[in-house]
Amino acid sequence: MGAAGSKLEKALGDQFPEGERYFGLENFGNTCYCNSVLQALYFCVPFREQLLEYYANVKNPADAEENLLTCLADLFLLGKTTRVMMVTALISFQISQTNNKTSQDAHELLNYLLNELADILEKEDRVAKSDQETYSPSEKVANGRITSNGSRKEPLVTLVHKNFQGTLTNETRCLCCETVTARDETFLDLSLDIEQNSSITSCLKNFSSTETLNAEDKFFCDKCCSLQEAQKRMKIKRPPHVLVIHLKRFKYIEQLNRDKKLSYRVVFPLELKLSNTIEDADAEYSLFAVVVHVGSGPNHGHYVSVVKSHNHWLFFDDENVEMIDESAIQTFFGSAQEYSSNTDHGYILFYERLVDSSTS
User: Fold this and answer.
1) What's the rounded Cα separation, in Å, for the pair 115 and 240?
2) What pTM was estimated for this model as a whole?
């Protein structure tokens, strides 16, 4: 667990949860962005437990190919911080192919990590089903494919999709014939525009606000068979079990010809209620992790994470781990003034759906 974990264990005394691991992660040279995301994912308990259950039941450690899934499983199970270098190398390599920025972004990493894990799980599922078909050639197992009776089944829902995936509905209403066209799309996180002295609730309302399409942006209505003025809005059709909110703190400023960090004060509550949903009215969530960007600019700085475990809030800064008071969370809301000595700003928020509010 390391020295930091030992100090924390002593501080908690009898309150230290049995079987829980609190360990810092070594910084292998600008890998704080990776460490902060990994800590947040580790304390996403349903995801961690399902990942370890899959690894224990499906994978054979003796012949398992080393990939992102096996590295994360070892990290979560054993606290093998040496594997972090392997995880970081895998992620950094992929990101470097598509991004030439000098510093890595925690949000890009999270997106890559979740999508890569889903791809690995889907690939292993296809291999397993292919092996089954080898032994039972008369039975076709469907994974988004046509089955022997001609029906089509839904694609595999991996543990990544089960925990993080939600569904958005893009509704467009023709102002001429009132026909509503709806298109669904899935998401693993929500990226929200932010404003000064605002809140997550107001950002979510702006995300679902109605936009009028007119002039050069008119909508082609299939019923009218012509371009028409329309109203468009985005709503959450199916909220995920784990709601990840990315605050868009880095914005390109045309006058400056560069990206700028927005230090805006955005209040994020410990308990969040979604009111702009379709299927599940007023879905309720509880905050359990925050990835924080420290620094004044987008191309330099540091990442830390704050997580909640067994009613205790913990602050992770690479190898260092300490307990903090719940009231300290508000110091990561942002700055009410443009220039402030406080540059520790909440960047990625992790909320878990409360059991009583879930219909699943």
Assistant:
1) 16
2) 0.86
CA–CA distances in Å: residue 175 to residues 207, 227, 258: 21, 11, 39
Do residues 289 and 268 lie in contact, with contact meaning Cβ atoms separated by under 8 Å? no
In tens, the pLDDT along 35-78 reads 999 999 999 999 999 999 988 887 665 556 778 888 888 888 87
Output the pLDDT for position 21.
66
Whether 302 is catalytic: yes
Considering 107, 161, 302, 345, which one is annotated as catalytic? 302
Nearest to 158 by CA among 68, 84, 94, 288: 68
How many CB atoms are closer than 10 A to CB 37?
A: 24
Q: Alpha helices, DSSP H only, in the chain? A: 2-12, 32-42, 45-58, 68-78, 82-98, 106-135, 159-164, 200-207
Q: Is-catalytic flag, 32?
A: yes
DSSP letters of 256-292? Answer: TTEEEE--B-EE--SEEEE-SBSSSTTEEEEEEEEEE
Cα separations in angstroms, 148 against 122, 128, 151, 152, 350: 21, 18, 8, 10, 42
Q: Which of 32, 34, 71, 221 is catalytic?
A: 32
Place of tokens 């469907």: 142
pLDDT tens sequence across 317-346: 999 999 999 999 999 999 988 777 789 999
